[in-house]
Amino acid sequence: MPSRRFGEITETWNPVIGCLHFCKYCWARPLAARLAKMGVQPYAERDFSPTFLPWRLDRKFSRNSFVFVCDMADLFGEWVPRTWILKVLEEVSKNKRATFFFLTKNPRRYLEFEFGDNAVLGATVETNRPYQGISRAPQPPERIEAMIELNHEYKALIIEPILDFDLPEFIHLIRRVKPIFVYVGYDNYGHKLPEPTLDKTKQLIAKLSEFTEVRYKTLRKAWYEPHEKSLKDIGD
């Protein structure tokens, strides 16, 4: 599989921080708030406001590292100035010995830039359905269509936190994206999202495995999924 070139993330790099998608399940915003209360900069001054940190552009990366770029931001959010993105991409182009993983909920903006073959372009697509009230980001169907349109050899999809979906349609759309790998995982923070059953998620994984590598994250029963009674309960 071509994705064997790309192992697990070895380090993170945040030359830009902050996000305005306000996802219900976001882990980064609460973390930034905790760091701000502890007096940790730049969060103590900026909290989670989009901020460019140019001194972090001088970071050195080890050979064969797989770097998650801006895990504390959405670098391709509509609010991010083009100049910030170009500065980050300039450094990526200089560091050919490392590979860089980008992740966004606004992948249509990928189409505005050029990327080398040391970049993996990822998008979070929790489902194939539109859901209201969970995020201010473009709806998942829009993100998937942008990833289909994107002409780049190394693309990835992150289905986390997974939301309930339509199996045949979701599989069809993901196949059209041609991702080199897909992550699948449930919400880890108890937000009571509209999740699919574990059995349905396993069906999705089995179908995806027919044409791409699937990487597992948290897999469990959905928060609302009824638990089967034990034999003891039945006997009672």
Describe this structure in words.
With 236 residues, the chain is α/β, with parallel strands linked by helices. It has one domain (2-235): TIM Barrel (Alpha-Beta Barrel). 27% of the residues lie in helices and 15% in strands. The protein has seven helices and nine strands; from the N terminus they run E-E-H-H-E-E-H-E-E-H-E-H-E-H-E-H. It has helices spanning 28-37, 43-46, 82-94, 140-149, 167-177, 198-208, 231-235; strands at residues 11-13, 16-17, 51-52, 66-69, 99-104, 119-124, 155-159, 181-184, 213-216. Strands 1-4-5-6-7-8-9 form a seven-stranded parallel sheet, covered by helices on one side. Strands 2-3 form a two-stranded antiparallel ribbon. It is globular, with a radius of gyration of 19 Å.
Topology:
Layout: E1 11-13, E2 16-17, H1 28-37, H2 43-46, E3 51-52, E4 66-69, H3 82-94, E5 99-104, E6 119-124, H4 140-149, E7 155-159, H5 167-177, E8 181-184, H6 198-208, E9 213-216, H7 231-235
Parallel strand pairs: 1-4, 4-5, 5-6, 6-7, 7-8, 8-9
Antiparallel strand pairs: 2-3
> Given the helix and strand composition, which structural class is it?
alpha/beta
Looking at the structure, the CATH topology is TIM Barrel
What is the helical fraction, as a range of percent? 25-40%
- Flag low-confidence runs: 227-236
Computed Rg? 19 Å
SSE succession = EEHHEEHEEHEHEHEH
Strand content: 15-25%
Number of strands: 9
* Distance between the ends: 51 Å
Q: If helices are DSSP runs of H or I spanning 4 or more residues, what is the number of helices? A: 7
Described by the principal axes of the CA atoms, the overall outline is: globular
CATH class: Alpha Beta
Overall structural domain count:
1
